[in-house]
Write a structure and sequence with these properties.
The complex is a heterodimer of chains A (about 350) and B (about 240).
Chain A (H helix, E strand, L loop, with lengths): L14 H8 L2 H23 L6 H26 L7 H15 L4 H28 L4 H19 L9 H8 L1 E2 L2 E2 H19 L1 H11 L1 H6 L4 H27 L6 H17 L11 H20 L7 H17 L1 H4 L9
Antiparallel strand pairs in A: 1-2
Helix pairs in contact in A: 2-13, 3-8, 3-11, 3-12, 3-13, 4-5, 4-6, 4-11, 4-12, 5-6, 5-11, 7-11, 8-9, 9-11, 12-13, 12-14, 13-14
Chain B lengths: L1 E7 L2 E7 L8 E6 L5 H9 L6 E6 L2 E3 L4 H6 L2 E4 L11 H5 L6 E2 L2 E2 L1 H14 L16 H13 L5 E5 L7 H16 L3 E5 L3 H7 L2 E6 L2 E7 L5 H10 L2 H7 L1
Parallel strand pairs in B: 3-10, 3-11, 6-9, 9-10
Antiparallel strand pairs in B: 1-2, 1-4, 4-5, 7-8, 11-12
The chains are: A mainly alpha (about 350), B alpha/beta (about 240).
The complex binds adenosine-5'-triphosphate and magnesium ion.
Chain lengths: ~350, ~240
């Protein structure tokens, strides 16, 4: 009978159309986040007194990378359709643990790092296992487990303090030829954790779950393993963030405000980065730039001489603007029904 | 399947239903809305768990706890409530849950080219395998779901109202595909409210009414009117005979 006019897959449409189709919602989200960040950073560079030194860039990168790592940690649970309220607590727990074990000679430092990463992975795995096998809401489970992890941090470090291997700390927070090492750390995390994850079967499964969990289940997508892995990797990423925090502060502190701040800001960064809170759409790369945007707001306030006390107010405004830009698609959409999907 | 029972809360969805399917047979499963057709088939695939009764596949008792397990013995179902992920593209949906891999990773190139081939073979013309499924029309989505099921090369295919959204031409293509599969000895169950489709390709019709098996007819020895009467009235005599 009538053969298809266009062979599926092979050279559909013109190059341009193909490009538009391939440029997914997530990719557009990343571009928007990069654009906002670029504008804000240029405003900052222009307005701040004196030339933009490598030092300034390095400090900004260090601060940005902290939130970026936690935001990446938040991205994975969000992609499978749940929020993770424990990322901040795991971040703080890793910080407290690192300030105790990442010390001494290179060998003990190495084991210390491994221990911190393993603990992060373990925290995330516990979250995932409870959610999957207990059939519970991620929000509630991570709220409870976040409190547990914070409690452990407090037990580890009742008073701020501790120490860290200084050579390692300085190496992590310095820059080479004006390239901040913290930015390289982010790049490595993207290259060796995020991209392999995205391409893996379980990573793809995570997107399928976020898109339509029932359909994914009926199709034999390994739902349970994919969810547990998403939360486990989230814990690992938060722990990497905690390590960097230790390197920056040379110490550990179990402060609830830090945990809460990072958790909430990570959600903001994820949204600015174009990841849908409904799951199934988005990318950790967007979240990195989302985090940079959130952080640059603070710096902008300083150079524009606005009372830093107002920072939360402005962060809130930026968040709202970003969310609204996401919903600008209302204007472009041809079929309003699409909005309710 | 023997003496299957299933209740949802107060609703008795299936009452002592017997069900048989031979290799290479096309069985039409009919009945009023909420007669229990989808439920019966979901029990067969393991999407639902039965309250009592036995499910035998090739003579062996089975106990599928998920559709994943029934797929492994070659039973594939196309669910009435679409089983596709809307915001993923056609290629990924065709291979949902069994993406071609290279090591631990999904082999994207192979996935898209294979998906293109599958669609072409089944004459489903979507513009591109990169298109999001939710941007396809309802009928096209259904065609993709069917293509997906067939590409598993199952021994048993269950189609739950496959033609509900299809155009006359697409329906015809589907019926042709069904006959083609029959030649390869694939057993098929088609749930449909369109008796003409069932009479066009089916060997046997089975009628459910309010969760009971109320009758069975050979397509060659029955008429659409007779089956319709069964659907509407049920049949007291058939009821006892069917057990
Ligand atoms: N998941 C469920 N939870 C509760 N009740 C259910 C569920 N699935 C089906 N039922 C009930 O079981 C009965 C049979 O439903 P089923 O979907 O099998 O009907 P059907 O024959 O497929 O109807 P249709 O022609 O409308 O598709 C109905 O009364 C329905 O309300
Ligand atoms: Mg049904």
């Amino acid at each position: 009978m009538n053969a298809p006019t266009e062979t599926a897959g092979s050279g559909a449409g013109t190059g341009r159309r193909r490009f538009e189709m391939r440029l997914s919602v997530a990719q557009r989200g990343i571009l928007v986040a990069i654009a906002i960040f670029a504008v804000m950073f240029m405003a900052y560079a222009w307005k701040q007194p004196g030339p933009l030194t490598a030092n300034i860039v390095n400090t900004a990168s260090n601060k940005g990378a902290l939130l970026a790592l936690v935001a990446m940690a938040q991205t994975l649970p969000v992609l499978v359709g749940g929020l993770d309220l424990s990322v901040g607590a795991i971040f703080v727990l890793a910080n407290c643990l690192a300030s105790t074990v990442v010390v001494g000679n290179p060998v003990s430092t190495t084991f210390g790092i491994l221990a911190v990463l393993l603990v992060g992975l373990l925290c995330g795995t516990i979250n995932g296992a409870i959610i999957v096998y207990g059939r519970l809401q991620p929000l509630i489970v991570t709220l409870a487990m976040g409190a547990v992890y914070f409690g452990i941090s407090l037990a580890l470090r009742p008073q701020p303090g501790g120490s860290v291997n200084f050579e390692l700390a300085d190496f992590m927070t310095n820059s080479t030829l004006a390239v901040p090492h913290s930015a390289i750390l982010l790049l490595l995390v993207v290259l060796f954790i995020w991209i392999p994850y995205r391409r893996s079967v379980l990573g793809r499964a995570a997107y399928a779950i976020g898109s339509a969990e029932q359909a994914a289940y009926m199709s034999g997508v390994p739902i349970e393993r994919a969810k547990i892995l998403a939360f486990a990797l989230s814990g690992l990423l938060a722990a990497i963030g905690g390590l960097l925090l230790t390197a920056i502060t040379y110490s550990g502190a179990a402060k609830l405000s830090i945990a809460n701040d990072y958790t909430l800001n990570s959600i903001g960064a994820v949204v600015i980065g174009g990841t849908s809170l409904f799951g199934g759409v988005g990318s950790a790369i967007g979240s990195i730039f989302g985090a940079f945007v959130m952080r640059t707001v603070g710096d902008l306030l300083i150079v524009f001489d606005i009372n830093p006390v107002l920072q939360p107010l402005f962060v809130g405004i930026v968040l709202l603007v970003a969310v609204c830009m996401g919903s600008l698609r209302v204007l472009r959409i041809k079929n309003k029904l699409d909005l309710y999907r | 399947m023997r003496r299957i029972n299933k209740t949802f809360g107060a609703v008795q969805a299936l009452i002592d239903v017997d069900f048989k399917l031979q290799p290479g047979e096309i069985l039409g499963l009919v009945g009023d809305n909420s007669a229990g057709k989808s439920t019966l088939m979901k029990i067969l695939t393991g999407a639902y768990q039965r309250d009592s009764g036995d499910v035998l596949v090739a003579g062996k008792g089975t106990d599928f706890r998920s559709p994943h397990e029934s797929r492994e013995v070659g039973i594939e179902m196309i669910y009435q409530d679409f089983a596709l992920c809307g915001n993923m593209d056609v290629g990924q949906n065709i291979f949902l849950g069994r993406w071609p891999r290279r090591g631990l990773f999904v082999d994207r190139k192979k996935m898209y080219s294979d998906a293109g081939e599958v669609l072409q073979r089944l004459k489903v013309d979507v513009n591109s395998v990169y298109q999001k499924v939710e941007s396809l029309s309802g009928g096209r989505q259904q065609s993709v779901a069917i293509a997906r099921a067939i590409s598993f090369e199952p021994k048993v295919i269950i189609l739950d109202e496959p033609t509900a959204n299809l155009s006359v031409m697409a329906t015809e293509r589907l019926l042709e595909t069904m006959l083609e599969l029959k030649k390869h000895n694939v057993a098929q169950v088609i749930i449909s409210h369109r008796l003409q489709d069932i009479f066009a390709v089916g060997d046997r019709v089975m009628v459910l009414k309010r969760g009971r098996h109320v009758g069975e007819r050979d397509v060659s020895q029955s008429t659409q009117e007779e089956v319709l009467r069964l659907i509407v009235q049920g049949d007291a005599e058939e009821k006892t005979q069917a057990k």
